[in-house]
Amino acid sequence: MSDSDKQKAPRTGRWVRWLLAGSLAMNLLVVGLAIGAVMRFGGPENARRPSPSLVATLYRALPREDRQAVRSALHKAPRAQIEDRRAGTRALAAALRGTPFDADRAEAILAEQIRAHDVWEDAVLKAWLSRVSAMDDAERGGYAERVEEFQKRGRRHGRDNTNRED
Fold first, then answer.
1. Per the UniProt record, which residue ranges are transmembrane (predicted)?
2. pTM of the predicted model, to two decimals?
3. What is the signed CA dihedral for 46, 57, 77, 96, rounded to 10 degrees?
4. Low-confidence ranges of the chain (pLDDT < 50)
5. Same domain for 22 and 58?
């Protein structure tokens, strides 16, 4: 072999490897900041999630103890209601698979599901009203502020984390 064949390829300096690692770290930092900004501020206006429903806002703005009381009142719902909802879902799936598709049947199933949801929502609101009625003026005032803040800022950023565990 000649001397040129025995010669090793030039060795890349350690500084080049450090430079590449630093460049990669900076790129990851920039990408992380961009993703974080989109998650925090919601991206373009048309990409934002819709505001939570009024019932969800009223519930989430309650203090922890009151939310627990509302949940416990709802857990007293008869087991039959839960089974009815599951049966409705199975019936809708069967209607969707049906050939030919029966739009009237699907509409009837959906109407029943909406009615059942309305019954559940009424129970939530009754339990909510019971809790709010028990608040004094100062508590209700603070609660009203949390409701407004929650509705204004949305699901994640409107929370009053000082009294929340869930």
1. 15-39
2. 0.53
3. -10
4. 157-166
5. no
